Structure formats: structure tokens, C-alpha cells
């Protein structure tokens, strides 16, 4: 006998959780398509060369990589960004710009499974490729706001900055290792202000470290942060102008309460070149960013001589679901459980039971038939376990009389009904939160 | 530069096809949940021991198998049946019987890519585990019929048989290698009647080969096939009784035109022990079965001492989509393309454009904003490529006058509208297939 188990860092989704995951995905998809973003899909398995082309050592260590039957060096995708870059380079001729896509799919990383991290997890990316414009930057931020709001989130803040502003500031300071400085600043939430100061001092000196820390100081009002940035890079800085314009439009659209300007946001990856953003939940600050992204100006560089800019964001669906669970929001999402159980009194009435069930389904009621004659108590107990609110009972007497007994399993009440419309009515009442007695 | 390409047998899904795939999946999910089937998910990667426990050499050769960073012998799932068996054995204590689940996910087989087969493809499985009852067998057949009908399929036939009937017939014939005979019969559609006769004669003798071929003869009326089976195994055969009962209820439910009794259906796998079925499209007989399955009585035997019976079916989504494409049915499925393009006349009106777009979305209209000021012709041409039917034009004059110009891109007409309700109205008319001039 083989012990039934899954690999460490992998997990099964039982019906309730999987149904809620699907409902969340569907809500996100509705938001994306409402903004003109359309879905794509790419293979789980790709040439390792394609997936690892640009990555450093850390990524490579985490990637599931092997040789296939044909001797090809292949790997499981570890994010949806690299496959998207490959996709854009490969299909350029079939597509058009601006190109808006979303992609919700599993990715794989053999990383440390501590702290609730999984080795198989869902990413949910959306990007607009084409113009390097304020409108495109803004749009991604609007989608982030709308996506979280659509899931019932209210207390979140999207932290916004522009990598170019900080880079220009570092150039003015004549910092010798700006890329390392950006990576260090990116860790401020993880390692804290003092650790960052130490590292920055090593990378440059105490004085510069202090000035950088002043520049990125969090917690101030957006306008104050923008003035501080202006002092640092000058009023004519084009990156700062972009950031200010985005901030102004967010205000005009009445959405300022969901956003802030936070110069400490840099995103560690060299990939980003323009606006950058992360999203934190007010009630769960320690869970980290649930939606992050930014603008990049060299999407397809590895695979094509063409230059292509874009802006996008990624929602960590597993982290978001963990947050929703902790906030008690997950249970409010419906599970698509059936609404009526047609009880099996005698198996000779099989056709009758399945006929009634089909008629209820045709009226939009999710209905299942208990698949064999068992004690009523056993069938009711099954319905309760599965969260089915109503049982429909048709024995010899009811069928002869053209009637049914409708049992409300939560209220433990039962009444005789004569037509399916009454059943549909009871189900619809319950959907609206009105439990008829 | 790295050449952008995917592995042989793998493919990208561009927006139109992916949106249609999602729409098909959603339709199937609605059917499954309407019957009380709930979704589950399992990992793409599992212990090789778990996935390959019962499989023979053919499967093993096709499986993507490798050693992970932790030295574990792992593999990509090659179907959804084996992971389901592992899932049921592992989660028995958390679940209840009857357990109905569906699972729509990618599976991987490194097989020959000729004949339109992919190495990564989507399976769509649904099963009811628990009672070995007529009702459960019937239910799976009803779902198959409903699933295909919901996708707009009309001309299909679900071929139904019972493995136990053929097995009992072979026992009466005293055939020495019944398992091999079943496998041979299973190939009749691929290799033809004469090849089957040859192999059967080798496995037993000419006379028995003839009698088996008579028994499985296709093309007859269901009632005739049932009588022939009765002659072969006797009127009191319990397997035949099950098959007759199912056939009778299908008739009572008025669905006989979608089904037939076909004794040549055996399903090659030893796994099946009861009813078995395959589905053929009348207009594309050569494409093979688009939905197959059957009853099995030892689901979890590899992982548990418990015995568990079930019945289920699997839709090959890639094959089904290929069939729908060939039948011209794919293009009728909507792609979720945006309905209105807010044209960008001047970038200083950014907040206005995004505000109008947000208001349209709030009214249920999928709306995107062109992300930069470009020539009108270029923006219209983009809208046409993406299939966006309307463009909303707001320049300085329109904004000053509180108006908008609504352009119907297909009709090439343009008119001034004063409120968003007029835009919503035009979009809704178009959805209903009424193109206002």
C-alpha cells in the first residue's frame, strides 16, 4: 500500500475552498475584462533557457528543472512575467498594441516552505504593453483598486513611487552602487530602518545613508512626500512629473483614500524602470504586499531586438486568500453547494426523481438526487454536511397525489407543496437571505 | 538573443481562443454545479510512486518524471483519475459519501504529437463516489448529455455498455484471456473489424472470434442490442439488468435520441468494472470519443484498505474544442472583448476619460481607454482589430458642451449623445443582436 500524501509545499483544495477560490478568480476576471484585459495562457513547462535567461542564482536554485524524454532542458514556470515576455516576442505579428492581457495560473518554486509559502501557487497578472503613458500607469492602479474592492476589501492602501525618481536622487548624491542601494531600500519592511541604515552606510557613507533614509521616510502625507522628492531631484524631473500627474488624477477620480505616495517602494528587481507599487492591508500589515507591480521598459529584450514597454501588476492569490481567511471574509463567499436534495425513497421511482431534478435545474435551482434508498435521517444528515438547505421528499403517497414534501433542513420544518414553483420560490427567498418558516 | 518558442506538443492560447476556452469551462462548471458536483484541485506535481503505482509500461514511458532539489522522485500528473484516488484515500475523514466532484485542469503526457495530440492538455473529470447504484450511473450519463447540449452540441450519441456483460459472455464462451479480448475489442474503431477478428482468433479460435464479433456488432437498434446481449448472458444477468434499467429511465426522461446501446464499448483500462461509455459526434466520427467514462469498484485500493466504488466521465477539452472549431461552433462563443473604447483626444483630459470609463463599467459595460493621444484613425483601427464595437469621442468642444460623440465602428456612423444612458442603450441593443443604425 502506498501512503496517500502530497509533496511538501503542495496542497489539495477541498470543495469549499476550491469553490471560493474559483469565485474569487471569477470576480477578478470580471474586473479585468471590464477594463478591456483579455485572458491568455502559456505552457506550464518551457525550455529552461527561455525561463532562466535573465535570472540570477537565486531563481535558478528554486526552479524545477529537468531533462525530458527528448533530451530537452526544461523547467516549470516560476512566474508569469517571463512566459509573457516570451509570448509577446513570439506572437508580435499576430497581436496589436496596446496589448492588454491577464493571466491567472499556477507557478512553481522549490523555495523554503516556512512562513506559509507554497511551492505551487497561483499568480494573477495583468499588464498593458505599448505606450509609456500616464494613462496606462494610472489604469493599472485603477484596476488594482477595483479588484480588491470587488472582493469586499475596504481597508487597503496602494503605495506608489517611481524608481526613476529615487535613481535620479541617488545620481545627484553620487552614490556609487545605486542598484544595490535600491535593493537595500526594498528590504526596509523586512529588516527595518536601522539595518537598512547600516547597509547603506557600508555601500556609501553615514551621511549619504542618512540622506537616503530621510528621502524614503514613510508615514508622511502624500503631498509632503512629493515635496520631499521635489527637493531631492528638482521640480523639472520628468519622473516626478509623471508621479504627480498620476496622483492628481487619482484625486480627481475621488480615489485618494486608497493610495499613498511612498518613496521607499523600489521593488527589488532590476526589471522595473518607472512607477512601482505595492499594496498593504491596514488590518494585516505583516502579511506583506498582496498586489505589486510597476512599469518596465524592456519586456522582450531577451528574445527580440524590438523594444517594448509595459506596466502591470500581480496579485498573489494564495496570500490574498490567506488574508481573507484571517479577516473572516472567505466564509462569506458562496460555495455553489446544491440547493435542493431530491430524497430517494424507493429506487423504482428513479425516473421521477431525476425528472423533477431536471425540471428544477431548468428553473435555475442547483439540485441533486440522493443516489440510493437509505434511511431518511441518513439522507438529511448528508444534506446538512454538504450545506444543502432543502430536501424534497416524494414517496409512493406523494407521487400518487401529485405532491411533494419540502423540508427546510435548517429550520427543521416540512410542508406539502403542489408545484415546482413553490420549491423555486423557497430557494429564491433563501438566496435573498429570507428564510421562510 | 534567445529564440522565443514553446516545446513541441505545447502551445500558447491567444486572447480569443483562451476567452472561448474559459467560456466553455464556465458553461461546463454551471452544468456540474447544477447537479451538485463541486470543484476540487490537486497539485500538478506529485510523488512518482503515487502517480505511477498501478500504471503499466506505456504510461511510465510518457510521464514527465524527475528528481527534485530534495532528492524526491516526482512526476507531473498524466491524468486526473489517479490524483483523485489519492485525494479520496487521503481526505476520507474530512469528506462524506456520496462524494461528487469535478476537476478541470491540465495534465501532461510526453506522447507522440502526431494527429493533433498535445503533451499538455486540459481534462475535465466528474465523478460520484459511494453507492454502486443505477441512479449514480444514470446521473453521470445525464450530465454528459447536458454538458454537450449546453455547449450547443446537438448531433452526438453516447454509446453505452456494461463491461460485466461482455465479461460474463466471455466466461460462458470459456475464453482463456478475457482481459486481452476486452482490450482488443476496445480497438475496433481504430484498427477495424477484420484486424480485431484476426487478433481474437489468435487469442482463442475462429469460431469464438466470430461469436464475439457477432455479440459486439455495432449499428443495430438499442433494443436489438439488448436482446442479443440477453441471448449471450441470460435474462437473469445482473449487469444486463442494470443496463436495461438505465436504458428504460433514459427513455422515460425523453433523452433516448442522445444514447445508444453499443456492446463494442469496453474501455481498454482494467480499471473499469461496470457501465462504460463513449461519446461520438455524428458530424465528426473520426475525431474519436469526446467524453468517456464508466464505473470502477476499486478507486482507492492502492492507497487504502477501504473499498470505494464510483462512476464518472472525462471530457477531453482540447479535442472537444478542436471539434467545435471544425464545426464552426467556436466563433459563436463570445470573447469578452470590450464594448466601448474611450478615445484619447488630448492627454490633459485623462481624468475625464477614466471617469467616464468607470461610470460605464459601473453600468455593466466593458470599457477601455486608449492610453495615449494618437490619430483618430489609428485608434479606430485598434478598436476594429480587437473587436470593440463602439468608440466614444470627447475632445475639448464635446467636454465643454457636456456631450460625447458615439461612433458605431461596424456601421461607420457617428452621433452626438448627451448622457451615458444612451451609450449603455446602444451597447445593450448590440448585445441583443440589434445593431442600431
TrEMBL record, chains A, B:
The gene is hisS. GO terms for molecular function: ATP binding; histidine-tRNA ligase activity. Keywords: Aminoacyl-tRNA synthetase, ATP-binding, Cytoplasm, Ligase, Nucleotide-binding, Protein biosynthesis. It catalyses: tRNA(His) + L-histidine + ATP = L-histidyl-tRNA(His) + AMP + diphosphate + H(+). Its EC number is 6.1.1.21. The keyword Secreted does not apply. It is found in: Cytoplasm. It comes from the Bacteria. The lineage of its organism: Bacteria, Pseudomonadati, Spirochaetota, Spirochaetia, Winmispirales. Homodimer. It is an enzyme of class 6 (ligase). Belongs to the class-II aminoacyl-tRNA synthetase family. L-histidine binds at residues 79-81, 109, 123, 127, 267, 271-272. This is Histidine--tRNA ligase. HAMAP family: His_tRNA_synth. InterPro entries: aa-tRNA-synth_II, aa-tRNA-synth_II/BPL/LPL, Anticodon-bd, Anticodon-bd_dom_sf, His-tRNA-ligase, HisRS-like_core, HisRS/HisZ, HisRS_anticodon. Residues 1-338 form the Aminoacyl-transfer RNA synthetases class-II family profile domain.
Amino acid at each position: 500500500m502506498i501512503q496517500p500524501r502530497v509533496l511538501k509545499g503542495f496542497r489539495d483544495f477541498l470543495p469549499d475552498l476550491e469553490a471560493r477560490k474559483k469565485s474569487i478568480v471569477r470576480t477578478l476576471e470580471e474586473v479585468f475584462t471590464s477594463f478591456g484585459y483579455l485572458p491568455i495562457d502559456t505552457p506550464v513547462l518551457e525550455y529552461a533557457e527561455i525561463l532562466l535567461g535573465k535570472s540570477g542564482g537565486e531563481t535558478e536554485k528554486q526552479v524545477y528543472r529537468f531533462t525530458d524524454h527528448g533530451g530537452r532542458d526544461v523547467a516549470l514556470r516560476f512566474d508569469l512575467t517571463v512566459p509573457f515576455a516570451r509570448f509577446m516576442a513570439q506572437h508580435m505579428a499576430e497581436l496589436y498594441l496596446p496589448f492588454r492581457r491577464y493571466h491567472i495560473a499556477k507557478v512553481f518554486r522549490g523555495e523554503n516552505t516556512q512562513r506559509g509559502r507554497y511551492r505551487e501557487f497561483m499568480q494573477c497578472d495583468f499588464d498593458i504593453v505599448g505606450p509609456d503613458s500616464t494613462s496606462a500607469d494610472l489604469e493599472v492602479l485603477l484596476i488594482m483598486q477595483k479588484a480588491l474592492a470587488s472582493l469586499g476589501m475596504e481597508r487597503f492602501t496602494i503605495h506608489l513611487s517611481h524608481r526613476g525618481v529615487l535613481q535620479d536622487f541617488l545620481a545627484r548624491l553620487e552614490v556609487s552602487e545605486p542598484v544595490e542601494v535600491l535593493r537595500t531600500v526594498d528590504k526596509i519592511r523586512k529588516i527595518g530602518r536601522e539595518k537598512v541604515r547600516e547597509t547603506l552606510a557600508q555601500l556609501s557613507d553615514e551621511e549619504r545613508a542618512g540622506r537616503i533614509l530621510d528621502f524614503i521616510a514613510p508615514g508622511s502625507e502624500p503631498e509632503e512626500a512629493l515635496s520631499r522628492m521635489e527637493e531631492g531631484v528638482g521640480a523639472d524631473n520628468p519622473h516626478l512629473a509623471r508621479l504627480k500627474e498620476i496622483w492628481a488624477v487619482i484625486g480627481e477620480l475621488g480615489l485618494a483614500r486608497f493610495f499613498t505616495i511612498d518613496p521607499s517602494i523600489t521593488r527589488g528587481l532590476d526589471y522595473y524602470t518607472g512607477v512601482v507599487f505595492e499594496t498593504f492591508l491596514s488590518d494585516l500589515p505583516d502579511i506583506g504586499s498582496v498586489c505589486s507591480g510597476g512599469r518596465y521598459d524592456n519586456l522582450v529584450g531577451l528574445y527580440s531586438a524590438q523594444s517594448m514597454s509595459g506596466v502591470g501588476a500581480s496579485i498573489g492569490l494564495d496570500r490574498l486568500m490567506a488574508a481573507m481567511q484571517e479577516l473572516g471574509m472567505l466564509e462569506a463567499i458562496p460555495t455553489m453547494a446544491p440547493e435542493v436534495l431530491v430524497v430517494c425513497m424507493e429506487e423504482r421511482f428513479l425516473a421521477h426523481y431525476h425528472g423533477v431534478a431536471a425540471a428544477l435545474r431548468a428553473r435555475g435551482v442547483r439540485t441533486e438526487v440522493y443516489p440510493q434508498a437509505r434511511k431518511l435521517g441518513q439522507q438529511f444528515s448528508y444534506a446538512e454536511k454538504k450545506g444543502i438547505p432543502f430536501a424534497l421528499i416524494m414517496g409512493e403517497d406523494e407521487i400518487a397525489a401529485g405532491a411533494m414534501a419540502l423540508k427546510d433542513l435548517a429550520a427543521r420544518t416540512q410542508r406539502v407543496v403542489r408545484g415546482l414553483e413553490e420549491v423555486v420560490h423557497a430557494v429564491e427567498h433563501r438566496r435573498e437571505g429570507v428564510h421562510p418558516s
